[in-house]
Amino acid sequence: MVKILSGTAKSSQAANPGTSSGSSKKRCTRRDLMLGFWVGIALAAIYLNTKRKPVIHAAASTTTKTKRTSPASSGDTVPIMSKSTTAEAETVPEPATTAETTTSTTETTTSSSPKIEPPAETSSSTTSTSSTTTGTSTGRRTIAGFTPKPGHKDFQKIGANAGTDKVWGADTFERCLQDQSTCPTPDFDNPKCRTLQGHFYHTLYNRWLGNYSLDDAEPFQFLEIGFFNGRGYDAYKEFLPRAETHSIEIACLPEGPREEGKWPWGNFAKENKHYQEYLDTNQLHCGDGADYDFLHETWTTHMKRPDAPPLKVVVDDAAHISDHMAKSVFFWFPKIEPGGILVVEDIQPIHEANKFRTDFLPQMMKDLHYCGDPKFPDKACFPTLWPLLHSIHCEMHICVFERNEMPAVEYDMERSIPPPHALNAEECLLKASGGATYG
């Protein structure tokens, strides 16, 4: 900085030879200080710029570009160029800094569509690639739960082999992105919803049931509500080798009118090759999963035995009707042992299930945070459930209700069925016990 000011003084003398030498010793003015400051900033910027390392791009021979099109809701397609290392390519040395890594970058060309697609999920390993010809993913995504922990079984793999729709979304998503004509619902805004009726439930099951999938896990009871053709049940049995499994299905009732307690629309449970075996071994229980008397009989006769392992997992995958879903929560959640979970599937925006998603679930969430402060005008929505609730975890179209450390409870019939406001959130969510309204 001194040299800069000195040089400025010398050039000033050269331009004005008549100026005495003593004038160069006068005190610096405010203008001189400001000038010196900004000149210093400029030189510092130039210096730092010369020290920057150039970005070294990987050689073209080490990467291959695969092009896919992401369907936009307007009908246009968004070309996406993703780079991934091929199996035949030479190994790219690990760069000194993460800023220099280029093999995991994604080049995106925008289109005129106003809708914004979510960014493509990339694997943390450059050796994991996704197939663009078959539409099936050969690599693992980075979201927690996609990759099972060591020793845990993989529900996506098991579910795909069993043919259950619980993992269809994951198995067809890439193909749907590449060719929207293969998507069952191509006009949906959410790309993952375009694969309906295929789901991505493997992430939740890998995360929440991973410990139960171990070959040396403690024995426990598992209940599925909604056997249908048994593909999901078969997947659960393979995924949970230490579970005593049970399933409830209405279609295996005797054929006849519903008003007579029978089923007139065919027995699709018979499609399962193990159907008779499941019946003979009291694994498959035929009846209405929303009927209290049938549920009580199933529980007390077949499951609540002196020699039975603890009930730890209940999955509702039945009629996808809001009232039935709420009944499953009220009847089964208190009976689950501490630390167990109740899973409700298929709460997507459809008419039959909407009230569970928009009215029942928010009330459960409110109760999760309930304190009962007498100075605050609030009340619990479901007084029989909140004392047992530890957490709520939801992924797309599926939610987990986790039991806390309180022991399992046997309620009477009145407290084992949903109250009138269970599917009408306005009373509990918007009104306090004193009648005041708050948002």
What's the short version?
Keywords: Membrane, Transmembrane, Transmembrane helix. By secondary structure, the chain is of the alpha/beta class. The protein is built from eleven helices and ten strands.
Can you describe this structure?
With 439 residues, the protein is an alpha/beta fold. Among the domains are: 131-198, no CATH class; 202-430, Rossmann fold (3-Layer(aba) Sandwich), CATH 3.40.50.150. It contains eleven helices and ten strands. It has helices at residues 2-15, 30-51, 155-162, 168-178, 202-208, 231-239, 275-280, 292-303, 322-332, 354-368, 426-430, and strands spanning 63-71, 77-85, 106-108, 220-225, 243-249, 284-286, 311-316, 341-345, 389-395, 398-403. It has a seven-stranded mixed β-sheet with strand order 6-5-4-7-8-10-9, with helices on both faces. It is globular. The protein starts with a helix and ends in a 9-residue tail after the last helix. The relative contact order is 0.07.
Topology:
Layout: H1 2-15, H2 30-51, E1 63-71, E2 77-85, E3 106-108, H3 155-162, H4 168-178, H5 202-208, E4 220-225, H6 231-239, E5 243-249, H7 275-280, E6 284-286, H8 292-303, E7 311-316, H9 322-332, E8 341-345, H10 354-368, E9 389-395, E10 398-403, H11 426-430
Parallel strand pairs: 4-5, 4-7, 5-6, 7-8
Antiparallel strand pairs: 1-2, 2-3, 8-10, 9-10
Helix pairs in contact: 3-6, 9-10
CATH topology of the domain at 202-430: Rossmann fold
Name of the CATH superfamily of the domain at 202-430: Vaccinia Virus protein VP39
Discrete helix count? 11
Question: SS-based structural class?
Answer: alpha/beta
CATH architecture of the domain at 202-430: 3-Layer(aba) Sandwich
Strand content: 5-15%
